[in-house]
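WARN  no MSA supplied for this record, continuing single-sequence
INFO  ligand: NAP
INFO  echoing inputs
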Amino acid sequence: MYDLVIIGNGPAGLSAGIYAVRYGLDTLILEKDVISGQIALTDIVENYPGFSSIAGIELMDKFKEHAQEAGVITEDGEVLNIKSDGDKKIISTDEGEIEAKAVIIATGANPQHLGVPGEEEFAGRGVSYCATCDGPFFRGKNVAVIGGGDSAITDALILSNLASKVYIVHRRDELRATKVLKDRAFSKNNIEFICDTVLEEIVGSDDVNGSVEKVILKNVNSGDIKKMAMDGVFIYVGIVPNTGFVDVDKTSDGFIVTNDKMESSVEGIYAAGDCRVTPLRQVVTAVSDGAIAAASAHEFVSGR
Ligand code: NAP
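INFO  complex generated
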């Protein structure tokens, strides 16, 4: 039986791992994917202290290297559920069962889908949720970015260096994104904002290999419908936490409720990073959550 199993290998999970082994806990990190969280898909990170500009993947490679050097053990496995049995937690994965005295959930979140007609049909054929992954397919083309948060603006900036024109479609007339990102987007002459507007439908060719050809947009004030020729649609309308496998207190949209020690409603189960209720979702806050969760797990396991 492990002292601690950490589920997820993003910034929160790796940070928790580094702290946990330094506390002397026999620790295992379970990873569903070799990609270390959403940040590994981010082009450039400019707000993690110590690195004024670093590729997301490079930053996460450094995290992994550090965790390995510290002695963190990692195994593949997708967690299906967690059950409490007396003093132990039984973690069922697609590879079998693992027992631990404590568990930290650091499973992050995935992009929210919008649910408009054409979105699922053209996923991977013009509809994307990641400019770093798919942007190069749209070199010299016209793309729409849906959303007004940090993810939308960050990826619109990446796309503006590849596509010939980027339309940011936002449901309000004010962006949610941070000022530094907004200012950068405003200064790009191939980014155009279409405000007070929602995406109604994505239209493309019926052919099995067909791709996105146009978008249908609706002005939320006037109700006017506009059809625009478009080669790609990148959707950033929020995130969905990966927490379906665990039965602890959550918000209606699935974020795990914790206290400031990262304790969930179930003794011995902690949450860290984007999957929990938090006022700020950044690498720096995920790492901090991970460290606090490891300290709390150490207290619990050592009976203090
Ligand atoms: P977000 O901050 O929740 O923004 C989602 C955007 O989508 C909002 O502009 C929202 O509009 C819009 N939206 C939501 N539902 C919609 C719908 N049904 N139809 C049309 N538009 C809709 O999500 P995010 O941008 O993915 O960011 C998630 C977290 O990661 C945030 O905490 C963010 O700060 C962080 N993050 C940080 C960075 C960075 O620091 N560089 C980069 C990426 C993400 P409203 O504004 O009207 O609500």
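The radius of gyration is 21 Å.
INFO  checksum written, moving to next record
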